[in-house]
Amino acid sequence: MKTLAIEIKWAIIFVVVSLLWMVLEKVCGLHGPYIDYHLYLTNLFAIPAIWTFVLALKDKKRRYYNGHMTYLQGLLSGIIISVFVAALSPLTQWIVSYVITPEYFPNVIKRSVELGYYKTTTEAAAYFNYKHYAVQGTIGALMMGVITTAIVMLFLRSKNRTV
Description:
The chain has one domain. The protein is elongated and about 60 Å long. The protein is 75% helix and 0% strand. It is built from seven helices and no strands. By secondary structure, the chain is mainly α.
């Protein structure tokens, strides 16, 4: 279990960063009066998400591999972090949906019907609900974590120096 301690730590840190981002979105009104901007501004979460993965992989490289980590070692570490984040995703989404911002789904359902994205409230509610977001978040966390890791490790891997 000690070999996974860094990955577990960073998965928890990632979840905390995600929850703080949701609080920030709510405080800024993106789940209420400025919900029209949510679709665009929520994508800015990519910045702290990528940064968290960079810090996690640097931490693994420094603490576990003594400063020398291959691409595959980093990729495996990032995949493990992604699996843990994905496993925690339904709980994270539950906290967001029922604790941080329970008004989000009713607001986005109403607004999406007003704007004509959906014809009826029933259609919109079939998309904007906890179950759908929990599944989407789990799959998204796994996919984006692996993709992010694959790219980040191009820059963080240790280069073999041959003389």
